[in-house]
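Thread amino acids onto this structure.
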């Protein structure tokens, strides 16, 4: 009788441990998925790359502009173009309601609807002190985007939910400055020397 009871207790314990393991596995995968963005987030490189870098940026941020203009081209040359990295972009206007970063984030998502995210993003960073609504619409015309579709998208706040998803994800990850990168889930703050970032990536590729 004792043997049967002990066997029953052991079986229940094994099932409990198994279920607990599944719970933490799913929780961990959800956290990684959150860091790695969602299907709506634009990315460069291969979705099958060994390294995933998730970027949180805002368009009025000078350091973010430096990342886009100086660091990202070197990442493309060294890693992205050879499909070693999947580079995901997420919006993170630090103080929604102050300045024009939030509306710029909506605008770049409107450009994404017409498959011009990266081209439009470049223009925003080049003109980060001129991001009024009239400016945002003018930049869309420079890229020959459909004017009616873009203007309606921007005026109706069509993409605000996408932007808010990024902001929410950033807050959950305790992002408190831009730019912030996550390299396979590991936080990498700010933009220092390119060589330092390259070293982190090289380590992750080993």
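Threaded sequence (206 positions):
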């Amino acid at each position: 009788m004792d043997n049967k009871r002990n066997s029953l207790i052991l079986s229940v314990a094994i099932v409990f441990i198994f279920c607990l393991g599944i719970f933490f596995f799913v929780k961990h995968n959800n956290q990684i998925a959150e860091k790695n963005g969602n299907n709506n987030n634009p990315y460069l490189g291969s979705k099958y790359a060994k390294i995933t870098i998730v970027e949180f940026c805002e368009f009025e941020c000078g350091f973010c502009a430096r990342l886009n203009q100086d660091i990202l081209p070197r990442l493309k040359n060294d890693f992205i173009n050879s499909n070693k990295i999947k580079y995901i972009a997420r919006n993170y206007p630090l103080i929604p309601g102050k300045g024009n970063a939030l509306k710029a984030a909506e605008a770049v998502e409107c450009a994404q609807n017409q498959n011009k995210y990266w081209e439009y993003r470049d223009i925003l960073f080049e003109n980060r002190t001129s991001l009024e609504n009239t400016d945002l619409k003018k930049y869309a015309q420079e890229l020959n985007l459909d004017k009616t579709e873009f203007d309606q998208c921007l005026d109706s706040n069509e993409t605000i939910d996408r932007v808010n998803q990024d902001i929410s994800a950033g807050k959950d990850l305790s992002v408190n400055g831009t730019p912030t990168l996550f390299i396979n889930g590991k936080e990498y703050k700010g933009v220092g020397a390119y060589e330092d970032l390259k070293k982190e990536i090289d380590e992750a590729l080993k």
